[in-house]
């Protein structure tokens, strides 16, 4: 067995953030507590990752795969030959949708990095919150963000259990540290996060064990599970393993009933950490879910009901609870629950591209919304009621926020969100999966009510003539850039929703 | 050219929204009227030259920007532009309350853009996108500029409007997606030409149910109508005009283009239900109008009755029926725009529109306003010689001899009941005329005589009244345009 070769371009979306994290720490060691150098290093690394991921996406266009790190003949990856399927021995295999996930993770990481590099972070929600705490340690923070991105980029292209597990955890654990550094001093929400992470990791490990028992391989894919799916006794073990793997990822995607951490963590950890959780961690979670669903082809009929219930319940209940939220971060957390259901829905029909496309639109919109929230929360955490009449006081912020919310709701001018809903509902309608499609209709209506409640506040005039609130310039710039991306997706939706089966 | 007709109002609307309070009200009204009229001209040119735009938009879905007008969509698009121009004109004399006039006019124009795109769309998926485009501007018009007496009711009316129609359009979206994925194309003309060939009966019925249910919310067909009276009561005059003359038309147009043309067999299966619902709507609306105390809501209820005729005519599936439905559709658009213009103006003038308060007679104090109201009411009750007559008359005739695959007896019963409903229309129209035009119960020396509406409103109203007359006297004008296009949608 020869040593595997590595194609640097293919591995770049993973390697660049990882090396960038090391470099950021090194820079911080050389010039301690300087505010500028580490974020610059991080930004360069992430930009490189975005560019490489886009190049890979173009190269993998048309259903192809670009792969590297191939371990030919490795016994741990041995599988029984499956008819009609070709086993690839490569650890990193980039498809067009995988590359899109990588690009999203890196771009969202970049946005978070800009927010974190500001003079003062947005203060979290707590009784004794000190407005505008100084940034704890720029080098460490940058390294943590980059590690998260690197983890998400690995999960998106991983095809074996080892890489998958490491990537999934790498995409979550650094966020815990960030929540501790950024969150409210007494209760940063980090405890919730770490409990969730450990639980989901435990479940994932048991699931992985069952998977290996059933398939005899570390490979995560339809090829590996084919043989086990043909044998009745092995099929039960395999199904249980897959259900556990799905459950562990459902924690990260904050699907009901694994969602409890999200609405408590988001407000306490502050807008920046919430952004990292809502974007990069969610990308990693979907990457993980896609790999599991691809691996479950042979037992798809047994898994389908579980996925359907998760998707339908999350979509509807998340939207209902979003209706009652009183502050922006909680609303976005609940909306994350319902959007998680939407992301999962096309996977019930086995349509990976639809799930990735929907997630792409969601991530751009949530980054836009959260950067507006971060820009406005200069003087402390906000409540929804504070946004009353924002359109008159701060038209730019209100416009970006409104566009993002309407994208969540799937109403023009948020055309990207509407088209994303088309993409998700198409496989459901085509395959007659009405028990997912009809709850989706209900979820759309409840979601409209939830998001329009906030949009209405932006529009309606405030009773008193308030002075325009102070805004943070960096966060405003990020918000405007992301808002422009959202607008351009409206005109050219192919950017995010391009990979299609037809 | 047709692309320009969609983009122009969108552009003008966006600029007005962006301008907000910076722009003076007068400039906004002027820009709105000119924008809507320019759209009208562009539409006429595009329609007469058969201009078509066809560019791919989202290949993954097979979604294309495919726009073009024909005999069915052309009149509706022109109507939308004309009514929007009239609606913008009313903002001259009747300042919108609750926000800047530029925002108000901007919302009107974006609604127009959505409506034109809906009518012109030749791609089923693009149709859904355009259909949803009108939701947010109309919601803003209701929630922000609506009746200022009760903010709570305003929010509720706006929310109910968005939630009902959002529910409808999502159901419709499911139907369209199923249709497109089972037929393999999203081109509405190709779908219409195929007439559902190659789709199983169960699929056809599922598609027809989803599409009809979704669109029936927008029309609205009884029992999915409950958002309409609330929205109309609250919406400002211009908003009501657009709601009645443009948004409701999108629903009926969708019914013709989607279930009727693409899955005729499935639609035939559910047509009896639609016919019965339409007929119930006629009676229901008529009865409510007899006792309704709120003038604007009364007109809204009468809309439900009129749309009942359209639904019944569509359900017959015959040549005459569909032609009648399209005719009644356009006629109702013009008549209701006229009525809402007058009634909304009166409500603005009076401060409220409770019919129990005796009002000074329009006949004496404001003859022109009174005449416009009378024309609208007379057309609404289906007086021969005015626009309302032909559509509803033909609808009843069509219901007496429905297409071959429909149950005769049921449709004949519906026709009889609908004829009774037409008599109800006479009763409530006369009630309104008595109370408002004659000023019954009002003693002449109590206070000032009734005042005319602002001149700009009278001008807009006069043009609409003229259209009512022309459509009534010369129905052939419109029929000559729609008839050739009917071949595409009706199974002969």
Structure overview:
The complex is a heterodimer of chains A (502) and B (492). The model of chain A is unreliable at 127-132 (pLDDT under 50). In chain A, helix 7 crosses helix 10 (261-269), helix 11 (271-295) runs parallel beside helix 13 (328-348) and helix 12 packs parallel to helix 18 (434-459). Chain A has one domain (8-497). Chain A has 502 residues and is mainly alpha-helical. Chain A has helices spanning 8-30, 37-59, 96-116, 138-157, 161-170, 173-182, 190-215, 222-230, 232-252, 261-269, 271-295, 300-324, 328-348, 352-376, 390-393, 395-409, 415-430, 434-459, 473-491, 494-497, and strands at residues 66-70, 90-94. Chain A is 70% helix and 2% strand. The longest helix of chain A is centred in the middle third of the chain and has 26 residues, at 190-215. A two-stranded antiparallel sheet of chain B has the order 1-2. Chain B contains 20 helices and 2 strands. Chain B is an all-alpha fold and 492 residues long. Chains A and B meet through helix 17 and helix 18 of A and helix 5, helix 6 and helix 7 of B.
Notable features of this structure?
heterodimer, A: 502 residues, mainly alpha, 2 strands, 2% strand, B: 492 residues, two-stranded antiparallel sheet, 20 helices
Instruction: Determine the fraction of residues in helical runs of chain A and give it as a percent range.
Output: over 70%
The SSE order of chain B reads: HHEEHHHHHHHHHHHHHHHHHH
* Percentage of residues in DSSP E strands of chain B: under 5%
Q: Give the domain tally of chain B.
A: 1
- Strand count of chain A: 2
pLDDT < 50 stretches of chain B: none
Based on secondary structure, the structural category of chain B is mainly alpha
Q: Biggest interface, which chains?
A: A-B, 39 and 40 residues
Query: Based on the structure, what is the oligomeric state of the protein chains?
Result: heterodimer
H/E element string of chain A?
A: HHEEHHHHHHHHHHHHHHHHHH
Domain unit count of chain A: 1
Task: Note the beta-strand portion of chain A.
Answer: under 5%
Unreliable stretches of chain A (pLDDT < 50, length at least 5) are 127-132
Please state the overall shape of chain A, judged from the principal axes of the Cα atoms: globular
Q: What distance separates the N and C termini of chain B? A: 33 Å
> Quick one: overall form of chain B?
globular
Could you give the count of β-strands of chain B? Answer: 2
Which structural class is indicated by helix and strand composition of chain A?
A: mainly alpha
Distance between the termini of chain A: 40 Å
So how many helices of chain A?
A: 20
């Amino acid at each position: 067995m020869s040593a595997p070769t590595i194609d640097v371009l293919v591995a770049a979306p993973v390697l660049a953030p990882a090396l960038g994290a090391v470099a950021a720490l090194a820079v911080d060691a050389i010039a301690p507590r300087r505010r500028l150098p580490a974020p610059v290093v991080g930004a360069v690394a992430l930009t490189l990752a975005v560019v490489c991921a886009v190049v890979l996406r173009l190269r993998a266009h048309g259903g192809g795969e670009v792969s590297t790190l191939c371990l030919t003949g490795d016994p741990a990856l041995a599988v029984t030959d499956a008819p009609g399927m070709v086993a690839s021995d490569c650890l990193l295999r980039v498809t067009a949708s995988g590359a899109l996930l990588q690009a999203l993770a890196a771009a969202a990481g970049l946005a978070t990095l800009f927010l974190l590099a500001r003079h003062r972070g947005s203060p979290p929600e707590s009784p004794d919150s000190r407005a505008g705490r100084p940034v704890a340690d720029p080098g460490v923070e940058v390294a943590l963000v980059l590690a998260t991105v690197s983890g998400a980029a690995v999960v998106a292209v991983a095809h074996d259990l080892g890489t998958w597990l490491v990537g999934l955890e790498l995409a979550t654990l650094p966020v815990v540290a960030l929540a501790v550094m950024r969150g409210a001093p007494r209760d940063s929400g980090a405890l919730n996060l770490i409990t969730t992470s450990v639980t989901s990791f435990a479940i994932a490990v048991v699931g992985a064990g069952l998977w290996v028992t059933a398939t005899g391989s570390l490979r995560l894919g339809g090829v590996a599970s084919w043989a086990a799916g043909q044998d009745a006794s092995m099929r039960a073990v395999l199904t249980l393993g897959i259900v556990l793997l799905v459950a562990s990822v459902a924690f990260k995607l904050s699907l009901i009933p694994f969602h409890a951490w999200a609405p408590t963590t988001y407000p306490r950890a502050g807008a920046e950490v919430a952004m990292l959780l809502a974007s990069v961690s969610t990308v990693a979670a979907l990457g993980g879910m896609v790999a599991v669903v691809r691996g479950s082809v042979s037992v798809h009929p047994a898994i389908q009901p579980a996925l359907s219930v998760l998707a339908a319940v999350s979509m509807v209940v998340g939207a209902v609870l979003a209706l009652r939220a009183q502050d922006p971060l909680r609303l976005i957390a609940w909306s994350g629950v319902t959007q998680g259901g939407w992301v999962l829905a096309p996977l019930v029909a086995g349509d990976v591209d639809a799930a990735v496309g929907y997630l792409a639109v969601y991530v751009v919109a949530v980054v836009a919304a959260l950067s507006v929230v971060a820009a406005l929360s200069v003087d402390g955490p906000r409540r929804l009621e504070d946004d009353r009449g924002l359109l008159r006081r701060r038209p730019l912020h209100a416009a970006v926020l409104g566009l993002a919310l309407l994208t969540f709701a799937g109403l023009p001018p948020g055309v990207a969100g509407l088209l994303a809903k088309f993409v998700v509902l198409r496989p459901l309608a085509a395959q007659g999966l009405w028990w997912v499609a009809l709850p989706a209709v209900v979820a759309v209506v409840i979601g409209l009510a939830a998001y329009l409640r906030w949009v209405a506040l932006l529009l309606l005039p405030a009773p008193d003539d308030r002075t325009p609130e102070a805004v943070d310039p960096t966060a405003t710039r990020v918000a405007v850039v992301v808002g422009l991306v959202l607008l351009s997706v409206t005109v050219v939706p192919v950017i995010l929703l391009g990979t299609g089966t037809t | 050219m047709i692309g320009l007709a969609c983009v122009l109002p969108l552009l003008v609307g966006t600029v007005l929204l962006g301008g907000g309070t910076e722009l003076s009200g007068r400039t906004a009204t002027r820009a709105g009227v000119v924008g809507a009229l320019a759209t009208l001209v562009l539409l006429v040119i595009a329609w007469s030259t058969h201009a078509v735009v066809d560019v791919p938009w989202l290949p993954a879905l097979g979604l294309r920007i495919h726009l073009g007008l024909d005999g069915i969509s052309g009149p509706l698009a022109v109507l939308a532009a004309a009514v929007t121009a009239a609606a913008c004109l009313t903002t001259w004399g009747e300042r919108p309350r609750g926000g800047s006039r530029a925002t108000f006019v901007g919302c009107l124009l974006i609604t127009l853009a959505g409506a034109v795109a809906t009518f012109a769309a030749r791609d089923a998926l693009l149709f859904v996108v355009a259909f949803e485009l009108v939701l947010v501007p109309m919601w803003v018009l209701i929630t922000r500029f609506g009746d200022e007496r009760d903010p709570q009711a305003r929010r509720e009316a706006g929310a109910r409007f968005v939630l009902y129609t959002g529910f409808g359009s999502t159901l419709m979206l499911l139907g369209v997606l199923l249709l497109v994925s089972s037929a393999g194309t999203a081109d509405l003309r190709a779908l219409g030409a195929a007439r559902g060939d190659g789709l199983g009966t169960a699929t056809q019925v599922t598609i027809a149910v989803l599409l009809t249910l979704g669109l029936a919310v927008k029309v609205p067909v009884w029992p999915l109508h409950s958002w309409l009276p609330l929205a109309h009561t609250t919406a400002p005059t211009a908003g009501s005009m657009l709601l009645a003359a443009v948004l409701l038309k999108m629903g009926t147009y969708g019914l013709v283009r989607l279930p009727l043309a693409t899955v005729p067999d499935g639609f035939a299966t559910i047509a009896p239900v639609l016919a019965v619902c339409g007929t119930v709507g006629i009676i229901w609306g008529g009865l409510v109008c007899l006792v309704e105390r709120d003038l604007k809501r009364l007109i809204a209820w009468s809309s439900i009755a009129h749309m009942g005729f359209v639904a019944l005519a569509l359900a017959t599936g015959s040549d005459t029926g569909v032609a009648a439905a399209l005719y009644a559709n356009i006629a109702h658009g013009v008549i209701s725009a006229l009525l809402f213009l007058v009634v909304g103006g009166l409500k603005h003038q009076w401060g409220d529109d409770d019919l129990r308060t005796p009002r000074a007679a329009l006949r004496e104090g404001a003859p022109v306003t009174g005449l416009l109201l009378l024309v609208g009411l007379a057309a609404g009750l289906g007086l021969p010689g005015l626009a309302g007559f032909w559509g509803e008359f033909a609808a009843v005739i069509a219901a007496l001899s429905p297409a071959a695959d429909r149950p005769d007896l049921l449709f004949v019963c519906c026709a009889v009941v609908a004829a009774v409903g037409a008599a109800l229309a006479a009763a409530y129209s006369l009630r309104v005329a008595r109370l408002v035009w004659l000023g019954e119960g009002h003693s002449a020396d109590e206070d000032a005589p009734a005042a005319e509406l602002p001149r700009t409103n009278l001008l807009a109203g006069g043009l609409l009244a003229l259209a009512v007359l022309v459509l009534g006297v010369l129905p052939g004008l419109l029929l000559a345009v729609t008839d050739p296009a009917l071949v595409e949608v009706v199974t002969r």
